[in-house]
Amino acid sequence: MPETEVLYQIMGRHRADPLPERKPSWLKVRAPGGANYVRLKHLMRELNLHSVCEEARCPNVGECWEHGTATFMILGDVCTRNCAYCAVSHGRPPKYDVQEPSRVGEAIATMNLRHAVITSVDRDDLPDFGAYIFAETIREIHARVPDCSVEVLVPDFQGNEESIRAVLEARPEIYNHNT
Q1: What is the dihedral of CA 165, 170, 175, 178, to 10 degrees?
Q2: How do 50-51 and 71-74 pair as beta strands?
Q3: Residue 140: which residues within 8 A CB-CB, separation 6 or more?
Q4: Cα(103)–Cα(140) distance, rounded to whole angstroms?
Q5: Are the C-beta atoms of residues 15 and 48 closer than 8 Å to each other?
Q6: CA-CA distance, 60 to 134, in Å (whole number)?
Q7: Cα dist. 25→10, 40, 75, 158 in Å?
Q8: Phi and psi angles of residue 99, each rounded to the nearest 5 degrees, phi first
């Protein structure tokens, strides 16, 4: 019996049945490693920055970074909450870095971005829940790259209206909320 006939029998198919189609190209995820990916990874390490792409182990990091897109994660890489669905490290974070907004601005200027997305870990250990660093990051981006729009994905700030106001006063173009 020819090999193809054996395969059809194993698969429980008849020769007239069409073979399954290949997966669509958009469903395939390439492993990270292109030139832009490597450049962005080097920039993030050089400036000691974090991205939600890496910290949350996003499977699309290679595709996004290869296209020069990243979501910056400020206030460190340790979250004060322990959400079951999230891959970001949790625990007691170190003191926040007051120079981080400047480094984020530098990275965005280096990447020549027209739109920047900023998110963070939850910082329930801080009196303002990290609002000050969010506001300073927005101001730094606007100062360094005036044509860059800034989208923030803020934590809930435990409903603290002063924290929300502080971020809004820095005038992000888009204000979103992580749930």
Answers
A1: -70
A2: antiparallel
A3: 101, 102, 104, 105
A4: 9
A5: no
A6: 25
A7: 28, 24, 36, 42
A8: -90, -10
Per-residue DSSP letters for 132-145? HHHHHHHHHHHHH-
Tens-place pLDDT, residues 4-42: 666 566 666 655 656 667 777 766 666 667 788 888 889
Instruction: Identify the three-state secondary structure at position 51.
Output: strand
List the domain boundaries for the chain.
47-177
Residues in Cβ contact with 113 at an 8 Å cutoff, skipping those fewer than 6 apart: 68, 145, 148
Token readout for 114 is: 């027209």
User: Do the beta carbons of residue 152 and residue 167 sit within 8 Å?
Assistant: yes
Measured in degrees and rounded to the nearest 5, phi and psi for residue 140 equal -65, -45
Mean pLDDT of 70-79: 91
pTM above the 0.90 mark?
Answer: no
Instruction: Read off the tokens for 73.
Output: 């994660």
DSSP element (H, E) containing 46: helix 35-46
The Cα 12–Cα 164 span in angstroms is 61
